């Protein structure tokens, strides 16, 4: 795999085909658990690990899987990976496991994971498949973190509250109070607030992308004179 191919896969997964902001898959957990930055980060990391391991496994086993059973086999592989992650979280991050609850096992039903297994991992070698899983998971994790930070800041005026659930006792010192004496904004913490927050993130990404494309078009126009004027 060349450097250009690596960059292409990373850019597609993290930005151009971002699962949460462009493809709009996996919205159920994305909207449900992102009331704080730490919750979003934890689910994002779990999803990223699932994507990487499942993509790698599917790629390695792709020659042994018959077309008739490939989808059930993909689901079985993903379910096995998620079960291991769930047991590890139950053992080492129990408080966070209780907060995320049912949304950890529901990673199995995330269409983005099955989609990447079918569209990419089953057709490519292990290394590109691993990179694709990382890139797709990174894009999803970034969306979760941004939405969680936006909702936590708006709803409570804090950031990184509950970091000790993920990072241990020293994580208590990471909690930041950005807006002192914040009265609280309930709507930001409720499901409608998640929809509003996601809509703002999508609008911001689209505006930035449109602005970037406009600047590139202007630059090309400047460098290449209009031949019709001659």
Describe the structure.
This protein is an all-alpha fold and 230 residues long. The protein has one domain (3-223). 70% of the residues lie in helices and 2% in strands. The chain is built from eleven helices and two strands; from the N terminus they run ααααααααβαβαα. The chain has helices at residues 3-16, 19-23, 27-32, 37-61, 70-92, 94-100, 111-119, 126-156, 164-167, 186-189, 191-223, and strands at 158-159, 176-177. A two-stranded antiparallel ribbon has the order 1-2. Helix 4 (37-61) packs across helix 5 and helix 5 packs across helix 7. It starts with a helix and ends in a 7-residue tail after the last helix. The model has no long low-confidence stretch (mean pLDDT 93).
Task: Describe this structure in a few short sentences.
Helices cover 70% and strands 2% of the residues.
Summarize the helices and strands and which ones pair or pack:
Layout: H1 3-16, H2 19-23, H3 27-32, H4 37-61, H5 70-92, H6 94-100, H7 111-119, H8 126-156, E1 158-159, H9 164-167, E2 176-177, H10 186-189, H11 191-223
Antiparallel strand pairs: 1-2
Helix pairs in contact: 1-8, 4-5, 4-8, 5-6, 5-7, 7-8, 8-11
């Amino acid at each position: 795999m060349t450097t250009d191919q690596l960059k292409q896969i990373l850019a597609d997964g993290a930005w151009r085909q971002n699962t949460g902001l462009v493809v709009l898959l996996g919205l159920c957990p994305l909207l449900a658990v992102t009331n704080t930055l730490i919750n979003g980060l934890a689910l994002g990391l779990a999803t990223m690990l699932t994507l990487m391991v499942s993509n790698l496994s599917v790629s390695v086993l792709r020659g042994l899987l018959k077309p008739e059973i490939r989808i059930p086999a993909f689901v079985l592989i993903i379910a096995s990976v998620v079960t291991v992650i769930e047991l590890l979280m139950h053992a080492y991050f129990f408080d966070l496991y209780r907060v995320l609850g049912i949304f950890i096992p529901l990673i199995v039903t995330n269409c983005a994971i099955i989609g990447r297994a079918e569209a990419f991992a089953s057709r490519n070698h292990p290394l590109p498949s691993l990179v694709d899983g990382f890139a797709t998971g990174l894009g999803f994790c970034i969306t979760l973190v941004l939405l969680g930070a936006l909702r936590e800041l708006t709803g409570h005026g804090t950031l990184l509250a509950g970091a000790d659930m993920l990072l241990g006792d020293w994580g208590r010192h990471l909690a930041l109070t950005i807006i002192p004496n914040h009265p609280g904004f309930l709507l930001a913490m409720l499901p409608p607030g998640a929809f509003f927050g996601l809509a703002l993130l999508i609008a911001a990404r689209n505006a930035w992308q449109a602005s970037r494309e406009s600047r590139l078009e202007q630059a090309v126009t400047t460098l290449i004179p209009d031949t019709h004027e001659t």
